[in-house]
Amino acid sequence: MSEIETTETVATEALSQDYHDYLDEDGMIQADPRLMLGEENKPEEITTKDLMKVWFRWWWCNEVPHSFDRMVAPSLCFGLMPVLKKLYKNPIMLGEAYQRHLQFFNTQAVWGGGIISGITVSLEEERAKALNAGEDAIDASMIQNTKIGLMGPLAGIGDSIDSGTVQYIFIALFLGMAQEGSWLGAVLPFVCFATATFIYGFLFTRMGYTMGRRAALEVMKGGKIKSVISALGVLGLFMMGIMAGRYVTISTPIAFTMSGKEFVLQQTLDGILPGILPLCAVLGLFFFFQKKGMKVTQAMLGFTAILVVLGALGIL
C-alpha cells in the first residue's frame, strides 16, 4: 500500500461512522466527503440493466406513496435506490443521498420522470466518482436544483403529449370494438398506452443518463423531438376528426312540401356536405374552448341544454 493510500485510509477510519454525528438541526445528514475515500468506497459502473431497474421501479410505484408534503419523491428515491447503493458504499453517504431524493418532487411520470431519473443518475455518478477520487465534486444542492428546475417544464410537455394526445389515439383505435360490445375495446387502449409509455419512458431514462442535463434541452428545444411532438399532434387531430365524423350523430327531421314536391332538409345537407351538422357541433365546442378555456363541465351542460331545446322544437 502506498503512503498516500495509507494516509487516506487512516483519515477515513478516524472519521465517525455514526450518522448521528452528522445530523444538522433539521435532522438532515451533512456527511464529510472524506467518507467516500478509499478503494472500498469506489463506485461501481452503471449499466443499462441498472437504468432499467431505475425506470421500472419509478414507473411501477409512481403514484403509490403520493403525499402532500413530498408528492412523488418517495417513488423517485425508490427508483434510484439500486443505483445509489452502487455509487455510495459508505452507509452515511448513502443515507445522505436517500434524504436528498426524499425532498419534494413532482412531475409527469414518463417525460418528466424518465428524463429526470436518467439525468439524476448521471449527476450522482459524477459526484460519487469525484468524491472517491478526492477531487472537487458537484454540490448536492445542484442535483436537487436540477430536478426542481426540470420537473415543471417536462411535466407540461408530458401531460400534453401523453394525456392529451397518445391515450386518445389508442382510445379511438379501439372505440369501435367497445361499441360492438367487446370487452377488449375497454382494455386494449390502456394496455397499449401503458406499453408504449413504458418503452419510450425507458428510452428517455437512458437518454437522460447518456446526455446528462443536455437531455432536457434536447427534449424542449431539439429539432427531432419537436418533429415527433408535431407529428403526434397532427395524428391526434386526425383521430379526433375521425371520431367526431363517425361517432357524433346529429340530424334534422325538418321536411316540407314545395311546389308539390317533398323537400327533406337532411338530404339536401348531405348532398352539400355529408356530416355538416356534426361538424358544426364540433366546431362550436372548439370555439367555445378557445374563447372560454377548457371548461368541460360548462360545455357539456350547455351543449346538452341546446340540444334538448332544439329537439323539443323539432329542429333536431
What does this structure look like?
The protein is elongated, with a radius of gyration of 29 Å. Helix content is 68%, strand content 3%. It has 12 helices and 2 strands; from the N terminus they run αααααααααββααα. It is mainly α and 316 residues long. The model has no long low-confidence stretch (mean pLDDT 80). A hairpin with a 2-residue loop joins strand 1 and strand 2.
Shape estimate: elongated
Largest sheet: 2 strands, antiparallel
Number of helices: 12
Q: Could you give the order of the helices and strands? A: HHHHHHHHHEEHHH
User: For the CA atoms, what is the radius of gyration?
Assistant: 29 Å
- Count of distinct strands: 2
How many angstroms does the end-to-end distance come to? 92 Å
User: What percentage of the residues does DSSP assign to strands (E)?
Assistant: under 5%
Class inferred from helices and paired strands: mainly alpha
What is the helix fraction of residues, given as a range? Answer: 55-70%
Strands side by side in the biggest sheet: 1-2
Mean pLDDT across all amino acids: 80
The number of domains: 2
Low-pLDDT segments: none
